[in-house]
Amino acid sequence: xxxxPRAPGSAAAAASPPRPVNLRRHPAGGDGEGTTAAAAASGFxxxxxxxxxxxxxxxxxxxxxxxANRGQPDFQEGRDASRAFVTGDYSxxxxxDDVSDLSFSEMLTLQNWLSFYExxxxxxxxxxxxxYGQDGLPTPELTRTEAMIARGVQANKQDLEEKQRFPPCNAxxxxxxxxxxxxxxxxxxxxxxxxxxxxxxxxxxxxxxHCVCVKTTGAPSDQTPDSPPHRNRGDLDHPSLAExxxxxxxAISCSLPL
Length: 258
Description:
Residues 1-36, 49-80, 213-248 are annotated as: Disordered. InterPro entries: Cyt_B5-like_heme/steroid_sf (IPR036400), MAPR/NEUFC/NENF-like (IPR050577). The chain is α+β, with helices and mostly antiparallel strands and 258 residues long. The chain has two domains: 23-159, no CATH class; 166-258, no CATH class. It is built from four helices and eight strands; from the N terminus they run E-E-H-H-H-H-E-E-E-E-E-E. It has helices at residues 54-59, 84-87, 104-120, 140-165; strands at residues 35-38, 45-48, 170-174, 178-182, 197-201, 210-214, 241-242, 253-256. It starts with 34 loop residues before the first strand and ends with a strand.
């Protein structure tokens, strides 16, 4: 997926690269013609009249400048503060453009902010720096960041597919009885036509397994036409699964005493 299509007038859409906007020459406010940096995934969006919170946009479309919902400052000096949109650190040290150490999920958060701004604000120009050069063209750092987002999208897709196959268990705990794990047709927020039984799912890199509901009948979820005939055990034989000690193999509820 990567970043969304670049706005009209971008290097990808025009015969000649756009001229970067010098935002410091256009302070926000005043006569209404100013611009401010909307620091999204690569700081290359600049928007008229400053940064609005989504709540403000719903209530008042006049375009007056204000701080956003989480209290971040209206940083109108053309800086790229991409990182702050993920970390929530709007201090002087947090308003930076280095996103190289963000996780895949954090990069997806950055992508969502970028999509929001591209959808709701007018494109003015790009901020030259880490992601765009003085000529307005993308830098290698932007290519690397887009690749990270693409990998994040793929990882997120795999997580969603796994959740459909192995929905999380319902769980409760009490000081008197200990833990109880159980499955239902909507456990884990995944609606389905089967209930399943609790199992431990071990994932590479995870310190502890977590409880998932496993289909007990039919073909395995990864069954293909070339696979051997299945034994009508659903996903029970998946190698990353284990039973809970003391819990009947086909019970939909499992108590784990203190």
